[in-house]
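We include this case.
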Amino acid sequence: MKIRLAAALVVALAALAGCSTPPGPAPASPAPPLPEDAIAYDDLLSTDREFPFDNTCDQLGADSIDEVGARAARVLQGMGGPVGCAVEFGSAELDELWIEAEGPPNPSEPRYFPLLWNGDAGTGTTYHRRLLLDGRYYAVETIDFYGGQPGCYLTVDTGSPYALQFRGIVPEAVAATYGELNSSLTNYVVDHVGTDRFMTDNCPVVERTAIVLLGDIDPGGGSLATS
């Protein structure tokens, strides 16, 4: 399955793409594959379909939980009800994986994902990488700091106003081996080498797990799915 493209290739393709129309097939059901050079374009082909995630764990099958090596899943509860699903691993490489919806920041923005794709979502991240997930979804990886420790956040475009975010939370012992990567705690001096190493080491398990769980959440889906 195609997950990664080198950052250098992204830069080179972006220089060639300019402001031309982004490449890609017509939307369909099931979703068609996306061309690899789509990550070089700021504009995206898109659809406008219903968001496939229901903010609970009900869509995840027991077989999928076993397949990814998790032991259980629990609903994340907010003030107004369920806001996502925490898949519990308790393993040496991943403590939990949170699945949550990311919506447009204000009524004037019709969709969340294009803002993140172009670094305009206001996340203030020190790491930003475009990729195609499973060849069918536009996706972006960012680093964030839940509870002060680093995590690989994989945000996926489902062709909906909301995007689907997979938040990988590593064990504290693992996070500690990378030193202090949170620039807000180090006078905003970014450890780019350490950050890149953390993401290279810890994002692949988030990607692999997301692909499996998307099979339950969004069967036949993708960024250009019509249903």
